From TrEMBL:
Keywords: Kinase, Signal, Transferase. This is MaoC-like domain-containing protein. CDD domains: R_hydratase (cd03449), YeiC_kinase_like (cd01941). Residues 40-138 form the MaoC-like domain. It comes from Oryza glumipatula. The keyword Signal applies. Residues 253-480, 518-570 form the Carbohydrate kinase PfkB domain. Gene3D superfamilies: 3.40.1190.20, Hotdog Thioesterase. Residues 1-19 form the signal peptide.
């Protein structure tokens, strides 16, 4: 204590004589900006490591026994601090500056050990800020060790929702011999003749660290600017177990026939998510499965919570679906509005939200409202004739939808009671042009009506007759900054960029145009094995291409090429896609497309 008094007496005259009594940390408030950095130094003691081991239950001897850590763990200096204990400094640092912050995500890479007793430098840097009522911030998180702070121990990224972007300044103040010292760890004094490397200033900072309670560190600004936030398309809907039954001979009512029955991972949303994933675009899927055989089967691909759903499909000998009995009540019951709202952060930062109609009407509306508030385009997949009508209360939020002929009519009728739109299937015709003209004549009233109700793009799937693309006017449907954040399949994107002609035969109407336009894209001839995943692969291809930055017409051509790969596969989603084949098929489809109507 006497030694401390002597050291203090030696410091105070210097402060009184040379200090101007100003601090760079004194502004009452700072606003967080991209590139700003929070830093804090910390040392973990024996007691803290032992306490964490007791609370967490992680009593691995490499954290508690020096000899074991050296001999078995290979840590030359003995015990190491728990990795998660070190990582806990990141949320603590953020919350210290922004009380009420909600930690949403954290990725971690443990690059080097932190030994018990080591001093570490924790650094949190704002890399992307989405300012809104609640501010979504992506942080780069790093922890350095060694005396020179040059050894990276922990690296990663975090996402947090902040109630405010104003930095909370907690400037503790203490008087030493009549001189005011402000409390942040890295004091920046303006001192005549003193530099940051001077011995007296280092001694003063040391006194401050011992005298003052712990406080948040100073905000450092990085002049390098923003790093874009990586985001993923969000897929919400059914993840179900399909039971496929295919007879080996013509089925007869009232009796059994020999055939093959197999389990297949299914569900519209699940299929689309798998397709997108295999195109190397990372989706974020929200669904439910059960803790049972079906759930175990499905969780080979994804993990979630809830109850499973089962679907039994019956096919004819050619692979076409005869009938399907779907048990998807768990999707409606457990994918509730409150559950979906837990993923507000993912939805609001997504380049696109895809919803399948297995969701309840309330859940569909909740998801749409979150997307609408953040300007995220919504893709609605009607799933079936019975469920397509669920679009009625959310039509104004929908950017894209992909019904077949009968689903299109059901959707239009749901918005226009009493039912006035009809569809009569044409008898088989070898004349494709005549079939397409007939389909346009039958379906155009329903298409035009849905556009009037607010839907931006109708992608009407016509089976072997291709796809109608119907739109009213060219608008900015995807946030370009969001689409640039996506990582589309590099080989495929490169091939597609080279294969599409610069002066396409079809294009969208000019921005601001009031014309309604309909384009027809022909299907690509294929050796059909199974048709069950074609529609889902079409949607997956369109979404991947849109998120990769391709235009609407190019994306539809890609979707058709992906669907062709699907019908030639036994599985709902092919094991892999050929970039060269898809690029070639997409180019041929685009060159064959034609405008049916534009008035």
């Amino acid at each position: 204590m006497r030694a401390f008094a002597r050291n203090l007496a030696a410091i105070i005259p210097l402060a009184r004589c040379n200090a101007t009594a100003t601090t760079a940390a004194a502004p009452s408030s700072l606003v967080l900006k991209v590139g700003d950095t929070l830093r804090e130094r910390r040392r973990f003691t024996d007691g803290e490591v032992e306490a964490y081991a007791a609370v967490s239950g992680d009593r691995n001897p490499v954290h508690l026994d020096d000899a074991f850590a050296r001999q078995v763990g290979g840590f030359g200096r003995g015990r190491v601090v728990h990795g998660m204990l070190v990582a806990s400094l990141f949320p603590a640092l953020i919350a210290a500056h922004f009380p009420g912050a909600v930690y949403a995500r954290q990725s971690l890479k443990f690059a080097a050990p932190v030994y018990v007793g080591d001093k570490v430098l924790v650094q949190v840097q704002a890399q992307h800020i989405r300012a809104s009522t609640k501010h979504i911030v992506k942080f780069g998180t790093k922890c350095f060790t060694s005396d020179s702070d040059d050894l990276l121990a922990v690296d990663g990224e975090a996402m947090a929702v902040l109630p405010s972007l104003y930095l909370r300044q907690q400037l503790n103040q203490i008087l030493i011999g009549g001189f005011a010292i402000f409390g942040p760890l890295n004091l920046s004094f303006s001192m005549a003749g003193a530099t940051t490397t001077s011995s007296p200033l280092r001694r003063m900072e040391s006194v401050c660290r011992h005298l003052l309670p712990a406080s948040p560190p100073i905000l450092y600004q990085n002049p390098l600017g923003a790093i874009r936030l990586e985001s993923s398309p969000v897929i919400i809907g059914g993840m179900v177990l399909d039971i496929h039954a295919k007879p080996s001979m013509q089925p007869h009512p009232g009796t059994t026939v020999p055939g093959m029955v197999k389990y297949v991972s299914g569900g519209v949303a699940r299929n689309i998510a798998e397709c997108i994933c295999k195109l190397e675009t990372r989706p974020f899927m929200i669904s439910v499965v059960g803790n049972d055989m079906a759930g175990d089967f499905l969780l080979k691909y994804w993990r979630s919570a809830g109850l499973c759903t089962d679907v039994s499909n019956v096919f004819d000998g050619s692979g076409e679906l005869i009938a399907g009995v779907a048990s998807v009540g768990a999707v409606e019951n457990f994918l509730s509005p409150s559950w979906i709202c837990q993923f507000r952060l993912h939805i609001s930062t997504a380049p696109l939200l895809m919803l399948d109609a297995n969701l309840s009407p309330d859940s569909l509306e909740a998801a749409c409202k979150i997307a609408h508030e953040s300007g995220v385009p919504v893709f609605f997949e009607p799933v079936s004739l019975a469920k397509g009508s669920r679009i009625a209360p959310i039509a104004k939020y929908i950017t894209y939808t992909s019904p077949n002929e009968i689903e299109l009519v059901a959707m239009a009728n749901s918005l226009s009671p009493p039912e006035k739109y009809t569809f009569v299937k044409m008898e088989q015709s070898k004349n494709k042009a005549k079939a397409v003209e007939y389909l346009f004549e039958m379906l155009s009233p329903a298409m035009f009506f849905l556009l009037e109700k607010g839907i931006k793009f109708l992608l009407v799937t016509l089976g072997s007759n291709g796809v109608f693309v119907c739109c009213k006017e060219s608008t900015s449907l995807m946030d370009q900054r969001k689409s640039e954040m996506m990582s589309f399949s590099t080989p495929l994107l490169q091939k597609l960029e080279r294969c599409f002609p610069s002066n396409m035969l079809v294009d969208l109407p000019r921005e601001g145009s009031s014309r309604t336009c309909v384009f027809h894209f022909p299907a690509v001839s294929a050796s059909v094995v199974s048709l069950t995943g074609a529609g889902d692969c079409f949607v997956g291809g369109v979404i991947s291409a849109l998120c990769g930055g391709l235009g609407m017409m190019q994306s539809v051509a890609v979707g058709i090429a992906i669907a062709k790969s699907s019908v030639e596969s036994e599985a709902n989603i092919p094991d892999k896609f050929s970039a060269a084949t898809i690029a070639d098929d997409a180019r041929r489809t685009l060159l064959s497309a034609k405008m049916m109507w534009c008035k």
